[in-house]
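For homework, think about our next protein:
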Amino acid sequence: MLAHEQLESGNSLLDLRIATSNARPVAGHVLVLVHGLPRALGMGRQAAGLLPELAEHLANESGWLVASGTLSGVGGSTGTFSATQWRADLARILERVERSEQQISLAGFGFGGALALATAADDERVRGVATFATPAHLGPWCGPAEDFHQSVQVAGVVGDDAQLLAPEELRRDVLAVDPIAAIAQIPPRRLLIGHGADDLEVPASDARDLLAAADGRAELRIIQGAGHQLRADPRMVATLLGWLDRHR
């Protein structure tokens, strides 16, 4: 079953979908899916498009409650992208799904994985993080400030031009999310690092750098023949389901 609701997060109104299963309910376990940052023309409307379907599939197969929210400026959510705003959005989603004695895990894609790591580093309620195609080094991933700023505008994650940070400020705001520093703080909580061997946007070496930063205390899965878009890859789905099943 997939329920739809909206959450206020500052000046943004976020779309949230929560999937549950009547077939295999597992009490006390919640997974929150975190989409990445779209950077291609018009992709802001579609960046999280597959996640509600993935959430429903994961819930049905695992019995976990699975939440999928679209962050500010993405999909049907209002607002404008900044890393600070997205961190606030994710905190608001966690506040919504948290209940006493529940264990929360995060699964993030691309920049969403970096966001998940940063959130978990500061929040002991998060008991596990899975990342997929996540950059370990956000400086090279962003590139020059002007180019990054333009890509955010082109992608369409800007609800109000007046709210969009200036190029250098926007880049600094993103770089304040440090995946290497964050992942070092997460063990002994559980970690899964998934990456496509043929990812042209984020090299697979970034996955190994994340593993090293976690002092090797993470599961690493390099998916042969896979590129950057892992959300619909059945091998990624199987990997994530196996990880959930091992941590009931």
